[in-house]
């Protein structure tokens, strides 16, 4: 796996690189990243930039801000977004475009497709998309929460083949390198298992919201879509030179040999769960669809066509799927089956979940 074979990449830059002291955007680290983007484009690589940092960039406009006040943080994000975009734009001699989005935009299939088409149109015209979560308007219910995972969703939406996530360490270590001098850098990860997740702790950065765990979550999303993912040290200029030379300066997460299809990936990693269907513990083992007699209970409220989680009686997550029926109708069916011929009912209403609308969730191995 080499960046020299990349045709389209997404690079994610965090708050600590944008505004290290939270007193406005600084060019110290961003210049190296901007030069990397320019050189990558000169090599024929299409680039998308996911940039955190609006809150950190806007903080200096507020006197003694109360950071526990959500409204204040949103205002800081609104002020900082302008400064951040102007900072990026002055590094380039080609046009850039701002895209602000929330999880609600990504998890709605129609809006998700709209985002895809916008990204493709920008890339076709040689315009650099600069993407950030819309912190000024998002709520807890609607936000992605961190730009590591957002970058993976964007990479999938853009059909990228490489995702680069900038960190403040060289990559994934077997232990925290900031507290353990014997920590060893893991150069390549072929499968993200529970043991890999166990290597991560809390956030390493005092500025950003994403620690190594969210970077692993992003890598898992991206690699399942066939996207090679790097975690690199964004503070080190030599890192970007190595990438352009086709070397691996950090940790490479290799992509799945048989990636998920676009619809399956969107349902698994992006679509929100509006409710739950509980089935027998061994349900879905060999099933391509889900019928009414297999459902033990219905939890939550959802409409026909919305995504639901399918779990077993042990509480294990089995799959995500688009329900053909609303929770109201499913509750009526499951609670009124006494004396009813279930085969006749099935013939009458058809499958609850169709085989093309289900994404079975893989369970991580230790």
TrEMBL record:
Binding site for ATP: 12, 167-168, 209-215
InterPro entries: AceGlu_kinase-like_sf, Asp/Glu/Uridylate_kinase, G5K_ProB, Glu/AcGlu_kinase, Glu_5kinase, Glu_5kinase/COase_Synthase, Glutamate_5-kinase_CS, PUA
Catalytic activity of the protein: L-glutamate + ATP = L-glutamyl 5-phosphate + ADP
Domain named PUA: residues: 289-327
Keywords: Amino-acid biosynthesis, ATP-binding, Cytoplasm, Kinase, Nucleotide-binding, Proline biosynthesis, Transferase
Enzyme Commission designation: 2.7.2.11
Residue span, Aspartate/glutamate/uridylate kinase domain: 7-233
Superkingdom in the source lineage: Bacteria
Pathway recorded for this protein: Amino-acid biosynthesis; L-proline biosynthesis; L-glutamate 5-semialdehyde from L-glutamate: step 1/2
Family stated for the protein in its record: Belongs to the glutamate 5-kinase family.
Protein name: Glutamate 5-kinase
Gene name, Swiss-Prot/TrEMBL: proB
């Amino acid at each position: 796996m080499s960046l020299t074979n990349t045709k389209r990449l997404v690079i994610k830059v965090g708050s600590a690189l944008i505004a290290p002291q939270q007193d406005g955007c600084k060019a110290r680290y961003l210049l190296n990243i901007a030069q990397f983007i320019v050189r990558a484009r000169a090599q024929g690589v299409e680039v998308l930039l996911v940039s955190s940092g609006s809150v950190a960039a806007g903080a200096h406009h507020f006197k003694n801000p109360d950071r526990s006040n959500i409204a204040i943080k949103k205002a800081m994000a609104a002020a900082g977004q302008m400064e951040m975009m102007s900072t990026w734009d002055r590094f380039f001699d080609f046009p850039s475009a701002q895209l602000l989005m929330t999880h609600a935009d990504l998890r709605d299939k129609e809006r998700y497709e709209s985002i895809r088409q916008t990204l493709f149109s920008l890339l076709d015209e040689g315009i650099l998309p600069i993407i950030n979560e819309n912190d000024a308007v998002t709520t807890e219910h609607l936000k992605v929460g961190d730009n590591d995972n957002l970058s993976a969703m964007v990479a999938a939406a853009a059909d990228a083949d490489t995702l680069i996530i900038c960190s403040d360490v060289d990559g994934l270590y077997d232990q925290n390198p900031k507290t353990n001098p014997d920590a060893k850098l893991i150069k390549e990860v072929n499968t993200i298992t529970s043991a890999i997740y166990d290597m991560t702790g809390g956030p390493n950065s005092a500025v950003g919201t994403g620690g190594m765990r969210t970077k692993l979550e992003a890598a898992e999303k991206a690699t399942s879509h066939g996207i090679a993912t790097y975690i690199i040290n964004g503070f080190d200029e030599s890192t970007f030179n190595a990438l352009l030379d086709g070397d691996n300066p950090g940790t490479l997460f290799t992509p799945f040999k048989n990636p998920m299809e676009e619809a399956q990936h969107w349902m698994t990693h992006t679509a929100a769960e509006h409710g739950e269907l509980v089935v027998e513990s061994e349900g879905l083992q060999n099933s391509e669809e889900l019928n009414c007699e297999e459902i033990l209970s219905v939890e939550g409220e959802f409409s026909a066509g919305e995504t639901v989680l399918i779990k077993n009686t042990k509480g294990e997550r089995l799959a995500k799927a688009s329900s053909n029926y609303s929770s109201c109708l499913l509750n009526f069916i499951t609670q009124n089956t006494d004396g009813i011929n279930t085969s006749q009912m099935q013939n009458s209403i058809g499958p609850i979940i169709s085989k093309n609308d289900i994404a079975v969730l893989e369970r991580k191995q230790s």
